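Subgroup meeting minutes
Present: P.N., E.W., G.H.
Scribe: E.W.

1. P.N. recapped why we're keeping a running log of single-chain structure predictions: easier to compare across weeks, and new members can see raw inputs and outputs side by side.
2. G.H. added today's entry (221 aa).
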Amino acid sequence: MTGLDVGWIAASAVALANGVVTTVWLIAVTILFGGVLSVAGAAARRSGLPWCRATASGYVELIRNTPFIVQLFFVFFGLPSLGVHLTATVAAILAMTINVSAYGTEIVRAGLDAVAPGQREAGRALGLHNLTIFVCIVLPQALRTVFPALVSQMVITMLDSAVVSQIAVRDLTYEADLIQAHTFLSFQTYALVTAIYLGLSILLRRVLGLAGRAVLGPGIS
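Output recorded in log:
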């Protein structure tokens, strides 16, 4: 098989498609759970309870200052020592969610800090409960402010998900490794996979942008 032979692409199409589906599945679930935990973490960081702030701050510092691959290995290889056995896919989702939540927490916190205090005071003047003020008044404004940063972080997480191939999750990178090992066309294989990741990144940005405009209103980039 020569470098000019493109027949290997057709022969590898199913494997690459399966890898793309797995990668998309991983990031979709991670965005769902990671987004919720990011908001909860940001709220904890601004809580009036010292222990709550300390716990959230410690979590953010721990995750942001350690490599993602170490976190992944701890979840997949370390937790079984404590009696917690996870499949490779579940371990990957858990590690990705833990990782993106730490970064998302700081992004959302910055958005919450940017909301004018008068917004909260206006809500209290109307007799609204603190939770209602947070969910209906403060959080939407905060998310509009930091939405581009959140989208960028989700794209970065999707690209970082290539690491999960190290625990035998059959994502796009894992399938690419198998293909190049079979065809010996390393340059062509990884050039094609690079193009696929580029396409996925652009698509993810557009999908999240549409979702943001649908939920938070026009003007979201």
